[in-house]
Amino acid sequence: MSKVLTYAEVQAHSVKKDLYVVIHDKVYDATSLVDEHAGGEEVLLDVGGQDATEAFEDVGHSDEAREVLQGLVIGDLKREPGDPKPKVSAPISSSDRAGAGSNSGDLRVGLYALVILGGAAAFGAYKYLHLQEGIKV
Ligand code: HEM
């Protein structure tokens, strides 16, 4: 049973004994987590009743942490005009990563070409200089 909460409703739960956070526009009840959180209670209290997406993602939480998160979901956030904007526009999905991968693949091919051409040029220069030295002697 998934609820829809407004940002104002989430903000009303910002104390240790009643702590909601928003991550990727879903609302989580982090109350039970406060005492067990490996990152400490302070960081959770800091984002209590607010959008914690950026803080959560910046830490680079493990898949296990994401599973814990799934167990805490209570509903979806309904953004209303005037509410704070999403901190991070979209979760980094595997398809995004694949896209980035192919881009860096292109870049890598370019870099290889550069290294090979650079090597060839250096070899040519070396040979040329050697030849000149040879003529001088
Ligand atoms: C309600 C959502 C959250 C859940 C379910 C959660 C869960 C966890 C878990 C399971 C770990 C252990 C390491 C891992 O598996 O990645 C962890 C570590 C950590 N978390 Fe969170 N966390 C949440 C929110 C936050 C937020 C908002 C912050 C803010 C900065 C934060 C900061 C940290 C830090 C700094 C660590 C690393 C601790 C260490 O490696 O010593 N977490 N969290």
Topology summary:
Elements: E1 3-6, H1 7-11, E2 14-15, E3 18-23, E4 26-29, H2 41-46, H3 53-59, H4 63-70, E5 73-78, H5 94-136
Parallel strand pairs: 1-5
Antiparallel strand pairs: 2-3, 3-4, 4-5
Bound molecules: protoporphyrin IX containing FE (HEM).
Q: Which key features would you list for this structure?
A:
137 residues; 5 strands; five-stranded mixed beta sheet; binds protoporphyrin IX containing FE; single chain; 2 domains
Structural notes for this entry:
There is one protein chain. By secondary structure, the protein is of the alpha+beta class. It has 2 domains: 3-78, Roll (Flavocytochrome B2, Chain A, domain 1), CATH 3.10.120.10; 93-137. Helices cover 50% and strands 16% of the residues. It has 5 helices and 5 strands. The protein has helices at 7-11, 41-46, 53-59, 63-70, 94-136, and strands at 3-6, 14-15, 18-23, 26-29, 73-78. It has a 5-stranded mixed sheet with strand order 1-5-4-3-2. A hairpin with a 2-residue loop joins strand 3 (18-23) and strand 4 (26-29). It starts with a strand and ends with a helix. The model has no long low-confidence stretch (mean pLDDT 85). Bound molecules: protoporphyrin IX containing FE. The site of protoporphyrin IX containing FE has 20 residues, from helix 2, helix 3 and helix 4. GO terms for molecular function: heme binding; metal ion binding. Residues 2-78 form the Cytochrome b5 heme-binding domain. Residues 91-105 have a biased composition (Polar residues). This is Cytochrome b5 heme-binding domain-containing protein. Pfam families: Cyt-b5 (PF00173).
